[in-house]
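Progress note, sequence design subtask.
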C-alpha cells in the first residue's frame, strides 16, 4: 500500500495497482493506494508519503528494527474498552505475568492532546512573564518621558495655573498624554501582531490563524491602563508645582 503522493510521484500517468516498484534492493507489488489524507501540521499528512508492507515482510527485510508501532481505531464511544482490550492483548503477546509492569506504551489522542496542552500552557506562562516584564519596562519608560515633559513644561504649567487651571485639570492633561502615548503603542503592537498572525496562517494553513476580538480589546485596554498607572506620579507632580516658582523657571 502506498500513499497518494508516492503514487503521483512514481506513476504520474496513473493506474499504479498491480505494478511493481524497487525499494532497498527488493521488488514490491502495489496492491492499493491510500486516499488523499487530511492536512497535517505543515499542510501535509504523513500517510500521503508512506509505504506500508506486511509485518512479516518488514521483519525479514529489516531485522535490525526492534521498535514497532501498532495503530488501533476504536469504535465510537468505545475508546476506553478498546484501550483495555489492546493492553490485555499486548500483555498476552509479550507473555507478561500478572503484576509485572508493562514493557510497552499505549497512547491515545486524548493523552497526546493533554501533553500538548501542558506544553502550550508552560509556553503561555513564560510568555505572560516576558510580557509582564516588557510592560513594566515600558511603563517605567513612559513615566520617565512624562517626568521629563513636566520638567520641560514647568513654565507652561505655571502659566496655566496662574490663569485659573485647577490641579485636576493639570492631572487630567498629563494622564491623557500618557494614555495617548501608550494607546498609540498598543495599536501599533496590535497591527504588527495581526500581520504576523495572517502571515503564519498563509504559510501554515493547518494552524488556526484568527485573532479574536477579545484579544484586541484586552491588548488595547492593557496598553491604556499602563499609561494611566505610570502616568499618575508625573501628573500629580505637575499639579503640585507652585505657580509662582513655575513662572520663574527658565
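Output:
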Amino acid at each position: 500500500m502506498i500513499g497518494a503522493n508516492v503514487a503521483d510521484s512514481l506513476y504520474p500517468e496513473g493506474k499504479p495497482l498491480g505494478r511493481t516498484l524497487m525499494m532497498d534492493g527488493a521488488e514490491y507489488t502495489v496492491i492499493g493506494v491510500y486516499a488523499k489524507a487530511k492536512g497535517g501540521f505543515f499542510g501535509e499528512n504523513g500517510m500521503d508519503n508512506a509505504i506500508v508492507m506486511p509485518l512479516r515482510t518488514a521483519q525479514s527485510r529489516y531485522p535490525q528494527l526492534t521498535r514497532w508501532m501498532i495503530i488501533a481505531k476504536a469504535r465510537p464511544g468505545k475508546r476506553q474498552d478498546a484501550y483495555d482490550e489492546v493492553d490485555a492483548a499486548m500483555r498476552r503477546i509479550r507473555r507478561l505475568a500478572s503484576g509485572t509492569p508493562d514493557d510497552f506504551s499505549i497512547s491515545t489522542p486524548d493523552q497526546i492532546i493533554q501533553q500538548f496542552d501542558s506544553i502550550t500552557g508552560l509556553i503561555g506562562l513564560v510568555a505572560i512573564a516576558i510580557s509582564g516584564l516588557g510592560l513594566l519596562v515600558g511603563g517605567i519608560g513612559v513615566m520617565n518621558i512624562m517626568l521629563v515633559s513636566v520638567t520641560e513644561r514647568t513654565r507652561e504649567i505655571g502659566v496655566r495655573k496662574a490663569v485659573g487651571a485647577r490641579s485636576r485639570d493639570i492631572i487630567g492633561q498629563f494622564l491623557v498624554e500618557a494614555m495617548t502615548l501608550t494607546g498609540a503603542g498598543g495599536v501599533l503592537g496590535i497591527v504588527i501582531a495581526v500581520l504576523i498572525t495572517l502571515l503564519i496562517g498563509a504559510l501554515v494553513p493547518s494552524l488556526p490563524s484568527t485573532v479574536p476580538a477579545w484579544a484586541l480589546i484586552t491588548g488595547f485596554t492593557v496598553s491604556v491602563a499602563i499609561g494611566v498607572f505610570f502616568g499618575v506620579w508625573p501628573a500629580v507632580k505637575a499639579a503640585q508645582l507652585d505657580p509662582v516658582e513655575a513662572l520663574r523657571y527658565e
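Residues 73-106 form one domain. Work on this subtask will continue into the next period as scheduled.
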